[in-house]
Design a protein that fits this description.
By secondary structure, the protein is α+β, with helices and mostly antiparallel strands. It is built from eleven helices and 18 strands. It has helices spanning 2-11, 37-51, 102-146, 157-170, 196-217, 268-288, 298-311, 328-335, 337-354, 378-393, 421-438, and strands at residues 15-22, 27-30, 59-63, 68-76, 82-91, 175-180, 185-190, 221-223, 227-228, 234-235, 237-246, 250-260, 319-325, 359-364, 368-373, 397-399, 402-404, 408-414. The strands form five sheets. Strands 2-1-5-4-3 form a five-stranded antiparallel β-sheet, with helices on both faces. It has a five-stranded antiparallel β-sheet with strand order 7-6-12-11-8, with helices on both faces. Strand 6 (175-180) and strand 7 (185-190) form a beta hairpin. Helix 1 (2-11) packs antiparallel against helix 3. The longest helix has 45 residues, at 102-146. The protein starts with a helix and ends in a 5-residue tail after the last helix.
Length: 443
């Protein structure tokens, strides 16, 4: 800003102190040797008046002492938004002894003030643009992080947790959560300075209310003031809730964020970002889970199993259980395809009920299933398979007037060292399952 200060000095030779201030009252340029506390006080008062309830004018002139006068000029853009101020202390002519009219000095300095006004406006515009670009860059990083490489072994609950944590950190939230009831997915993450138990408490108080509202309205909900959450009263947070939808019709769950009441409101940009992430979650769910049974698809099963294998070098501590429903084609031919489909669903429900948190379960296309048992010996995996076989024998399934016997054959294999340990283990378990069928099924 030095050229503008020098231009003021040239247009007003009697100026002894020249200072240029930004819109917050901070001096951004001072001429050499300036020490005019009275000038600083006048500029601060003028800016405070401008920024307060009463709007100021273009400036004023005021006598500092018998020989000096102070002039304060307020600089605004085309929309009359404050850009800054110029403060000048002039030595007055001994013949005059009083301050020159403000309008006269303003007229003398008009070329410099107009140029300075444009310069400050340009600087603020560039600064606003840089901040906007930084925000957009962070938005893009968040969205790209959610659309990670398909080959990275993602699409697990941990990836959902990272997505929620990214939302919380990027949008300055206290709590974030992803709830998918049908898939038993409940992820809750908190921001810096918020204890996990606080997040759990907020979610406990609000999840039923938010899920019910989302199921009813099937659209995003933003509340920048406390919301009512049933009999527990208002929740002291700003809330942004986005549905996770199946093809724009069925609501699978909800992605919800909570901000402190003293933080900036959720705006349209943030709503759009969270909606995009909710769509990403829906895409992952639809591609990772079999729509009929709710179990993993084979592709998602293999990705997650590979990811678990990558975390642990002890491959022999993991096992594969392979299951194939017996004589399903006979049921389809005699009772109809719908009966066969119902049997597949009932078998999947049984598998899901007996599945532990350390197991992965998938429907291999058709009437076959696979389970990945972590930290399991071959004997322990065989016990799991035998338990599933016994449960199927006790499955009361009725089709019309008749009871249908349901059974399955199982094969168990240990995951061994090799170039493709998971593929080899799946193949070995399938061969063992075929051997069980050859020896009479239901074993």
């Amino acid at each position: 800003l030095d050229p503008y200060g020098q231009l003021v000095k040239m247009l007003l030779p009697r100026a002894q102190a020249i200072a240029i201030y930004d819109r917050m009252g901070l001096p951004v340029w001072l001429n050499d040797g300036v020490d005019a506390p009275e000038l600083h006080r006048l500029v601060q008062e003028a800016l405070a008046k401008e920024l307060g309830p009463a709007r100021g004018d273009d400036g004023f002139a005021e006598a500092v002492d018998r020989d000096h006068s102070a002039y304060v000029f307020l600089l605004r853009d085309a929309d009359q938004q404050l850009l800054g101020a110029v403060g000048i202390v002039c030595r007055e002519s001994s013949q005059r002894g009083t301050a020159r009219p403000f309008s006269l000095v303003q007229g003398l300095l008009r070329p410099a003030l107009e140029c300075l006004q444009r310069e400050l406006g340009a600087q603020y515009s560039i600064g606003d643009l840089q901040r906007s670009l930084m925000v957009r860059d962070r938005d893009l990083e968040l969205l790209l992080g959610a659309t990670q490489d398909e080959a990275s072994g993602g699409e697990s609950t941990e990836d959902f947790a990272q997505l929620v944590q990214g939302c919380v950190d990027h949008l300055g939230c206290s709590v974030g959560a992803l709830l998918i009831p049908d898939k038993n997915i409940a992820v809750c993450r908190t921001g810096a300075g918020t204890a996990p138990r606080v997040g759990a408490d907020v979610l406990t108080r609000t999840h039923r209310h938010l899920l019910a509202w989302t199921q009813l309205h099937r659209q995003s909900m933003t509340s920048n003031r406390p919301i009512e959450a049933g009999p527990l009263g208002p929740v002291p947070y700003k809330v942004l809730s986005c549905p996770v939808m199946h093809g724009g019709q069925r609501v699978l769950g909800v992605l919800v964020l909570f901000k402190p009441l003293d933080s900036p409101d959720f705006d349209l940009r943030q709503v759009r970002i969270v909606e995009l992430l909710a769509r990403r979650v829906a895409y992952i769910l639809l591609n990772a889970y079999d729509p009929a049974t709710g179990l993993l698809t084979r592709l998602a099963f293999e990705k997650r199993a590979q990811a678990l294998l990558g975390q642990d070098g002890a491959l022999g501590n993991h096992c594969i259980i392979y299951a194939d429903i017996d004589r399903l084609h006979v049921l389809n031919e005699n009772l109809g395809m719908h009966v066969g489909d119902e049997v597949i669903v009932r078998v999947a429900e049984l598998i899901r009920r007996q599945q532990t948190p350390r197991m992965l379960a998938a429907r291999i296309p058709g009437d076959r299933f696979a389970l990945f048992a972590t930290d399991s010996t071959i004997d322990a995996a065989q016990t799991i398979a035998e338990s599933l076989r016994d449960s199927l024998a006790n499955l009361d399934f009725v089709a019309g007037p008749r009871k249908v016997d349901v059974s399955a054959s199982f094969g168990v294999a240990r995951v061994m060292d090799g170039k493709h340990p998971l593929s080899h283990a799946l193949a070995a378990a399938e061969i063992a399952c075929k051997a069980a069928k050859d020896r009479g099924r239901d074993r």
